[in-house]
Model the fold of this input.
Amino acid sequence: MAEKVVIIGSGPAGFSAAIYAARASLEPLLFEGTVKPEMIPLGQLAYTTEVENFAGFPAGNIREFVESAVDAERHYNLPPAPAGHERDGRPHYAVQGVELMELMKQQALNFGTRIVGEDIVDVDFTNRPFQLTSSGGQTVAAETVIVATGARANYLGLESEEAFKNRGVSACAVCDGALPRFRNKPLVVVGGGDSAIEEATYLTKFASQVMLVHRRDELRASKIMQQRAFDDPKLEILWNTVVDEVVGDDSQGVTGVRLNSTVDQPSREVEAAGMFLAIGHTPNTEFLKGKLEMNDKGYLRWTEAFRTKTSVAGVFAAGDVADDYYRQAITSAGTGCMAALDAERYLAEHGK
Ligand SMILES: Cc1cc2nc3c(=O)[nH]c(=O)nc-3n(C[C@H](O)[C@H](O)[C@H](O)COP(=O)(O)OP(=O)(O)OC[C@H]3O[C@@H](n4cnc5c(N)ncnc54)[C@H](O)[C@@H]3O)c2cc1C
Done:
């Protein structure tokens, strides 16, 4: 018998869709994906530490926040900051990315979502019910599908970068920044958007110095993030510069990067124990090529405004896989909810 709803992906979009679909008694089956170099179950938030902007999870002195927001007799649900978490001598706690995702996963499980630790590697949307094939070789029939596969980090594509991956080249400061090889050493971050600044400022906790390599003479990052970069004494921005080669050897891994100027300066080598990439993402849609309409960057296309419908009726898309603009956990969760409601309505309309 065909599944009513199959959800592909395990980020905020996938789990929010699962929570809504499960509460609507649609018994969703969710494929959470496998561990790959630039992609892990629980989605992109699993690569980060503190999440300060997911509504309902205030960061800071949570007890003080609660007392200012909620009457004393209604404090039952809201804990004080955990012991040992302080910033500037005051209690401080923010939900961690993995913690937030584990909570979403548990919430989906509590309502009866079934989770499979495999990828979906192929789909047939030409017949109904749809047929999905997993990396473990199982074939699943589905009345509706919600694609919530997100996006993954981009690399420069240099041979030397490939050679030094996991030996000094990383696309995740939060995952790798605290490794001994990077401690008290100069590091390079490539990029100029919000995530580049987030990664660079995070790395200043461990590095002796962080150089942000940026190809232009101004940052794409938001004003508040730019200010954070300018105010950080350990962060230097190398304007009009691109990485030409990652330099290193077998015993030490990365020892530096050779930089080219995008204006007239001569190329030069700077010492660095690591190079962190923060140059955008690629949507995880390879297995959907030719099956669903996409934009020129490979993001799935919604075919109706304010609906999560794709080019195939009964297939819905949620989260970053269909959003190259907002790319936030909360927007992904929102469209995950929308996709579940859209799937529920589709099933009702088709007598399922
Ligand atoms: C370092 C970093 C920090 C961030 N910090 C914040 C923040 O503070 N606040 C915020 O709002 N946003 C933040 N973001 C952005 C946020 O993480 C994303 O917008 C959000 O996770 C997107 O959710 P999603 O559900 O669409 O997809 P993702 O989170 O990308 O999850 C999709 C998951 O689906 C799975 N998958 C992929 N392909 C398949 C397949 N074929 N079969 C099965 N499973 C598959 C993978 O496990 C993948 O990880 C951050 C991102 C990064 C990288």
Remarks:
- The mean pLDDT is 92.
- The first helix runs from residue 12 to 23.
